[in-house]
Records
---
Amino acid sequence: MTDLLPDRRLNLLAEPCPAPRQYCDPDLMICIVRALAADPSAAASWGGRLAMQGCVQSHSTMAASVSRIWRNVFVSGLVLLGAFGLAVQPDLFDRPVTRLLNGYVGHWPVLDRLAVTAFVFPTFSGCVLMALVWSCWFDTGEVEQRARILVGTLASFAAGIASRLLQYTLPTHLRPVYDKVLGFQEPANLEITHNSWNSFPSDHATVFSALVLVIWLADSRFAVFAAVLTVIVEVARIYVGGHFPSDLIGGAGLAAMAIWIAQASWFVSIGRWLMTFEQRSPSLFYLGAFFFSYQIASLFLDVRNALSLVRQVL
């Protein structure tokens, strides 16, 4: 063991410890272990320096991180429950806000067309967000960070499924365009197809809010842009009658719950395990990843349309 990387051992003992990080570089830690094995007398000085400069995460820090995760899950759950309360009492919030936005329909044809474009085409919403997720992926080479991005993206998909199940089961409301009390006015001469089941919480807002949170947790410089873009796109869905405001708030709360749960160590360990496939067969990993990421960006629109055609034939 003493003949392993002797020059590197000397350099490690002579160089200052790297700047504090939340997660240590595994390669650096391997070199440290080898250096200490070769020179046990350095253990005391190295241990003190590492602890002081944050290269080794203490038990208290880990506990704080876990408590932060579950605190955020709890707050997100409260947001979801609060949005549900608004959904079952539409006259308190949903109808006034929707009626306000709907009052602008028909006054500016360009605004109508922009809103419908944002509502219909995933290029201007999901595809942009997924491209930003990939920018986060390639901005880092750390296995830990990539594992968190991976499980976060998968959690956004799972949250989308959960939102659709809640739409089928919760006793909330139909979409604004079907609300007879509201008397919603649709944009003229623009063909829009709306689903006929309950709209709370919005699966669109759930998935895309989750992707925004993934981008934010990756410390991307595009996080604010992603958040602003998503708010604009989701408000357009109210404008064209696809959702009430509570649908979007509930979707954001559900998304935050899913992403914060995915940050727990057990789920991140799954992400690290999945990363082994990227290392063993990059071509197959990225083939599946690019295909699946487009499906998330488009909310599996093509797949759902194909299945609908099959059901009609059968």
---
Amino acid sequence: MARVLLLLALLVPVAHAQRATVSGTVLDAATGEPLPGASVYLTGTTAGDATDSRGDYSFETAIQGDVIVTASMVGYSAQERSLRIRDGGTVEASFRLSPSTVALEDVTVQQTAEQRAADREWRNQLARFRFLFLGRTRVARETQIANPAVLTFSESNGRLFAQAESRLRTVSPRLGYNVLWDNLSLAGSEARRTWSGSNQFVVMSGTEDQERGWERAREAAYRGSFRHFMDALRTSSVEDSRFEVFPVDRPGLIPRFATALEGETIATSMEPRAGRIWLVMYHDERADRAGRIELQRNVDWAQMGSGRSQWSWVEIGPRGFVFGPDGRLENPLDHVLRGYWDYERAAELLPADYVPPRDLMPSG
């Protein structure tokens, strides 16, 4: 369950919003000198800029509302700033970065990274990290971790703890993104996990055929996702978007699907009350075989027909679903996601400024 990165996936650009400008300066915290070449970006999006010789940057975005801007540079600790962006406005965000305790250029650190890669236990932990963080979908299997040696691992009581000592880079040849992760950490097990960090999406350049393939893959990643469901819920187009919802009046742990489908606990109201669990079926895309196998721990597939549709469930947080004026879900961290929405993990994330095809955009 990605409780932190879910926030990044649910920022929603406004179709007709005026573009706002984010600008500022990045300086060395110790010397006060400008830091040219630093990366400054709106977390979870493709929007960003590199600082010039004076440490200045500027970029535009259609996203509005409460956001996080991150500044990152090799040899320095990444820093985040919380901002509120208004429609068509200008926001200033300056940073003073402190040198990192881990410098990638250091020979000793490089030797340590090489030693990690040669260590069998570390390689096994890396494989587990790939599953917990990226998942096992087709997109996840094709996603590459470009610099895994920056990761350190520890284990306790069956839980894996992972920390990236510096910026981690993942490459998705299927979706056409390089994703840069700052301050990334993960903790958890196969049953439940959390992670946190900032991420920047860098769009790949390719041939016309590659561009078309990436657009198809991004559309597939959006279909049936929690972001897709929230868009449909916000615009009262759940059925038109091919979702089916079974509200369950049972707080706490996840109930078995069989109980809900037998009608014993199906609620008559769709009010998103705190603690209520919504079972959600998406009919427009089949669940892949690996996803069906993984979900069998919690699902009685005999009660679900062929099990071809994608099943997910959300335990609704204390305030229900709170949408901002721009259509963005303001409290994504309040909710617990399981099922297919949990099976599709970080490898399936799309940037917040990704705009789905018009036929998939709910109207309302």
